[in-house]
Every structure is written in C-alpha cells, then in structure tokens.
Write a structure and sequence with these properties.
amino-acid biosynthesis (chains A, B), EC 1.2.1.41 (chains A, B), 4-stranded parallel β-sheet, homodimer, 418 residues, alpha/beta, 21% strand, Aldehyde Dehydrogenase, Chain A, domain 2, Aldehyde Dehydrogenase, Chain A, domain 1, Glu-5-SA_DH (chains A, B), 15 helices
Chain lengths: 418, 418
C-alpha cells in the first residue's frame, strides 16, 4: 500500500511535468502524434486482441452479463474504430490556440484572455477499453496530460492499449509521460488520485452512478461530473400522436443502456385516455415493460405497479415508468423531484406550453418535439465528447475539447501601477 | 443541533423555491429591487450602526487586532458605499438574457444555448459586513437565490443588514426567501451547507486560506475557490530600474492585506548587484521588512534570513521575501513550486523573455511590466466581482456576473428521432 501510494503520486508528478512540455506544442505536433497512435493501434490489433482475451476469460469466469462482456470485447473492427476516432479528433479545432477576448484599459494596459490547457486530467472509468483511447486523444489534442484509471475487469486490455500508445509517443514530440496508466487494481490506488491536488487539475469520472458518487464525495480535486440520466418525456394534452409515439419508442429503445435514453414518460390524462390503445400496442411491439402508477397500471395490460424507486431509477433497459398527470405543472414538479438535470422533453403542438417547459425545466438539455437521444457531442455537432456533464459549473451537457481548457489573463504594460 | 440541522435544510429548500421564481423575473424587476434595497440601507443606517456597535464591543473584549476591527466597522459613509455598490450592479448587463450560441442541425433541429442562473449560491465568508451586501446584489442581479453565512464576529451587523434587505424585498417582485441568512454561530450549521447538494448549486468561500481549505475538503457541492494569492514579481536582468522599483513598491504597499499584493520578489543577480543601493533605499523608505535568501540577507541591511515557510506564506503585511536567481528559468521553477496560480509578474525590457514568462507561468493573471494589483474585477473592467477564482474550472481570475450563471441547451424540433 505504501508502495502504491508512492507510485500514483510519482505518476501524477511525471504527468504534470510532461503536461507542461505538451502544453506548448503546436497543433501540428499534436495532430501528428494522434495519427501515429492511430496507425500503431491498427498495426498492433492482434496483440490487443490477445491481451483482451485474458480479460474476456476472467469475465466469463465471473459470469459477467452479456452487455458487460460486449462492452469489454475488442475486435479488429473496433480497433479500427478507435483509430478512426483519433483521426476525427485530428480534424477538430485546437481549442488552445484561441484568444477568447482582448481589450485595452484606459491606463494603456493590454489585456488578453487566452485559452490554455487545464494541465493534468484524471480519468476514472469502468471496463470500457474504448474510453482509454478516446480520452487520451481528447486530452492530448487539448494539450493536457492524462492519468487513466480504468475498471479492473479491463486491466489487460487497457495495459496493452497504453503500451501501444507509449510506443507510438516515442516517435512523436509528445512526452511518453503525458499518458499515465494506473495499473493497480487496488481501490486505494484510485482513491489516492482523489486528493493529489498539487498535480492533478480535474477528475472526470465516467460510468455508473455509484462510481461518480464515490468520486464526488471523496475527491478534493475539482470534478467534472458526467452522466447519470433519469430522463423524462412529458406528453402534453395537445401532443401530436405520431410524434409522441415515435419519440417515446426512439428514446426508449434506440440504445436503452445510454444516459440519454428515456426512463419515465409522463402522460397528460386526457391524451392517455384518447390514445391508450395505440400507445399500448406500440409498447408491446417493442417489448417495453411498463411500471405504471396506480391509475395507469389498471389500464395497461401486463404492466406492474411502480414503486417509489421506479421514479428515481435509471433502468438502462427496456423498462419504462409511466405516470399519468393532470397538466404541465404536475409534470414539471415530478421532473424537479426525480430528474437528474440531464435531458428532458415535452411533446406538444402548443407553442406556449412548449416555451414554458423549455424555460422552467432545469436540465442540461431541454427538448420540444424531439427525442432525448440527441444529447450527445457528435449528434449536436460538437465533435467527439469526453462525457456529458450534468453539473452546472464549467461545462454543462456534452463536453467537447473546450471543456478541457481554462483561460489565462496575459496583461502587458509599460510600468502601470495602481 | 438537530434543530439547526432542520433549520439550515429548510432555509436551503426555501431558497431553491424562491430562486425558481426569481430566475424568470425581468432585468427591470431585478434592477428595481436592487435600487429599493440600496435606498432602504441608507435610510436605516443608524439602526445598522447600532447593531454593528454590538459586534464592535464584543470584538474589543476579544482583543481583535485593529485591521480586523476596521473591516468590521460600519460608518454612515460605508453604508452609503454599500448602497452605491448596488446601484453600480444595476448598471451591469444582466448575463441571463444572453443567447450564447444558436445553430440548426442538418435534420432541422434548432439548438439554442442560453445563459441561465445557477439557482442557489451558498456564500461562506469572514467578518466583513460588506460581503453581505455585495454578494446579495450580484446573486439577485444574476437571478440566483443566496444563502449567506458570515463570520460569527459580525453576526449582529449581518443580521441587521439582512433584516433591512428583507424589508426592502417585501416591496419588490423578488421573493424575500431568495436571501437566506444562517443566523447560527454553530460551526455545525455551516457544515450542513457543504452537503445540501439537492438544494444548493455552488458554494463560494471567501476569506483566509483555512476557511477555503475547510470548504474545499468537506463540501460535496461544487465549490468556486477564491483567492489565496502568494504573488511573485520577477525582476529580470534587463528590467528597467524605474519600472521595477515603482511596481515593487506599488504591489507591496498599496494594500498589503489583499490577495493581489506582492509577497516574494525574485531578482536576477546581475540586476541586483547593479541596483541594490537604490532598491534598498526604496524598501527602507516604505518600511518594508525583508526576508532574504542566504545571499540577499548579507547585502540588505536590517533584513532577516528567510526560512522555508517564507516562500510559501501570504504575508498580507509589509513583509517581503527576496530571493536572488540566476535567470528566468530559476524564477519560473520557484513560482511553480510556491505560487498559488493567482497573479505573477515579470519586469523586463526583453520582449522574448517577457513572452516566455507570459506563456509558461500558469496563473489566473500573468503580467509584463505592470503591478499585480490590477487583478481585480473593477480594475480590469468586469464591474463588480464576487471573488477572484484561483481554480481552473468554470471561472478563472476575477469573477463577475457571468460566473454566477450556467447554460442550458433548448432544442426544438418537429418530431426528430435518432
């Protein structure tokens, strides 16, 4: 334990020193490095797949479920996707070249507010090897060093990926130390990251609610909180039937396991009474399991009665909570109580009601007549994203490259005093 | 203790509800309210001064030092200053009316990124009654509710100020509950604020290092860290003598107790040898007590030898640490080790050396040939400030009204699914 303590701290120190060298490299130097990493990953796919097999074997022993095993799995195609992801990052604008604003004071002082890298990013995530590559690409492009701590079930895969990245970095101007990997499976090693404020500028936890909660509670370093989405759609009295049904089905079934997927639908009672047959047949067609409130459960065949935790839960499956409400006010009150301020939608043809919803609901993204599945960096045109922030400070919603930067005031004078 | 627990939580809940109502008020409604508060403060100055006397009496009993007593003191003139400060805030642009960006996706979705209030701000500060008024003004103008927890030594003064604010709010559209004051002197009451994440969106600690450290370590709510400034000025070999001396004296003596005041001067050895007589006579003239490194202490009459803690300390007095260095690299390394990333300056006529310093030194504000005293919202043209952020996330340097807002994506469609 004492040795892992020294280790993590030493890694963080090295990352900080490397980050300083990286922070002043040109955009070209950084892009070239990303392209070399992409090529090396593709060249080494069979090594990566071999190492991945070790994790898969252990996962099988531990009887992980199929969704988990699928996220863990590497294939040649997926390795190519990693590489192409990096090539996409190369195309994104380098945020650190930007002068945010510039002005001259009456006393002649010239003030320039410039965008600069954060320094060192600590990335804590679950057993998804793709995050190892994605996060590294975004960190390096924005001039930041990164410390990676992936889920222990993907240890061999991540180790292999990082070894290829390190080999590649040897051929570039980016110091190898700019990418640090915590190879320990000891929880204590992760927790050491939480307080290394002297070396790490921000922690980004990416994964389930309990991982994020642990980091937020224990860290003294600033945290960029990502992603738990208890997403609601409110079907207003004046909702168009086709739009409502299409959006419910899309938001629930397109990718049920992601954070912008629908979890609870709030339906205005009159609308429900008028359209329940169509709604029920659609829900059946897509194998959606309904957890209904007291009234709904009586009218929806095969549904079970929702208990308190159904309203708060992120199912991440084909389960759907259904609550009948009298009006938009009841819907908003429910969302305020149970929502996680991620993505919330209203379906209505009434523009005033829509405006009220867009203004009053407090979330990273609020929608009128569209699927909540669009809360995503690439879908919204931001390019790649490091995660979706559900906090209000620094960055809210999908976080692209600018979220990995800060600003600095550069002030030039000729002897001004106050 | 149980009762204070319920109390603080209830106050936070009320603030949240009031904040929602406040968040949708017009700029005019908010400005009118601030003007009424300003008038009421002026009208009630004798009540405020009476209540302030209770704090002053207690402070005398406790033998607080004269600087502390001065910060605590209210006078008719100071109350007028509070009111005029609010009238200045009225003139500032309302940040919440701003559309940050707007675009249409290929699928026809219209995306609007709008600036909205954070919600509820928790302000934790020391015995400075002016913060009660300043912070309230900035919070209300930006559409936020505020929970105030001031230092116990100013309890009677703060209570009185808040009672006048509440009276005034009764005549406005802003709910009285939008300004909550924690009247308890129990430390436990303050600590409850740290974890009321459901109701409070951000904590802003303003005061000395230990107050800030406590909040950062114990809070699970995001914190906007303000202000400890261990400020350095590096006098380069090619520094102009007059600029260097003027800036050292200004940055050290103009207001020694503030965070942008100079604490350590790093002097290139050749420059020091050439100009030490002038420098020493200036330092003497302004009663500056020098803590010099091994070399400097031998050459500066009346100086004492600096120990390790001198390099890390924020003196906030007429003490000054002096270290002789060989070159800019040694200066930067020293700043990296001991600096608090607040304000750092270089004095030189060499443009390349200046550029290197501005680029490589990591701080909220970096200066070339100017006094560090300009790191201040009003001096830089931001208008009033809620504090100076020394963190990198969300806001860096002086924080004006926009730092008290977040953004929200409002997305409108006609049935788009993914």
């Amino acid at each position: 334990m004492a040795s892992s303590q020294i280790n993590v701290k030493e890694q963080a120190k090295k990352a900080q020193i490397a980050g300083k060298a990286l922070s002043i490299l040109s955009t070209n130097d950084k892009n070239e490095a990303l392209l070399i990493i992409a090529d090396e990953l593709e060249k080494n796919y069979s090594f990566l797949l071999n190492e991945n097999q070790k994790d898969l074997d252990k996962g099988k022993e531990k009887n992980f479920d199929s969704a988990f095993m699928d996220r863990l799995l590497l294939t040649k195609e997926r390795v190519n996707d990693f590489a192409n992801g990096l090539r996409e990052v190369v195309k994104l604008k380098d945020p650190t070249s930007e002068i945010v604003s510039e002005w001259t004071l009456e006393n002649g002082l010239k003030v320039k507010n410039v965008r600069v890298p954060l320094g060192v990013i600590g990335m804590i995530y679950e057993a998804r090897p793709n995050v190892t590559v994605d996060a590294t690409g975004l960190a390096l492009k924005s001039g930041n060093a990164i410390i990676l701590k992936g889920g222990s079930s993907a240890l061999s895969s991540n180790k292999a990926i990082v070894s290829v990245i390190h080999e590649a970095l040897n051929k570039t101007k980016i110091p190898v130390d700019a990418v640090q990997f915590i190879a320990s499976t000891d929880r204590k090693a992760t927790e050491q990251l939480f307080t290394l404020k002297q070396y790490i500028d921000v922690l980004i936890p990416r994964g389930g609610g309990s991982l994020i909660e642990t980091v937020v509670t224990k860290a003294t370093i600033p945290v960029l909180e990502t992603g738990v989405g208890n997403v609601h759609i409110y079907i207003d009295k004046e909702a168009d039937v086709e739009k409502a049904l299409n959006i419910i089905i899309n938001a629930k079934t397109d990718r049920p396991a992601v954070c912008n997927a629908l979890e609870t639908v709030l339906i205005q009672k009159d609308w429900f009474m008028n359209h329940k047959d169509l709604l029920i047949s659609k829900l059946n067609e897509y194998n959606i399991s309904v957890h209904g409130d007291k009234e709904a459960v009586k009218m929806i065949p095969g549904s079970v009665e929702a208990v308190e935790k159904d309203w708060a839960e992120e199912y991440l499956s084909l389960d759907l909570a259904v609550k009948l409400v009298n009006d938009i006010q009841e819907a908003i009150t429910h969302i305020e109580k149970y929502g996680t301020k991620h993505s919330e939608a209203i379906i209505t043809e009434n523009q005033n009601i829509a405006e009220q919803f867009l203004q009053e609901v407090d979330a990273a993204a609020v929608y009128h007549n569209a699927s909540t599945r669009f809360t995503d960096g690439s879908a919204l045109g931001y390019g790649a994203e490091i995660g979706i922030s559900t906090q209000k400070l620094h960055a809210r919603g999908p976080m692209g490259l600018p979220a990995l930067t800060t600003t600095k005031l550069q002030i030039s004078g000729n002897g001004q005093i106050r």
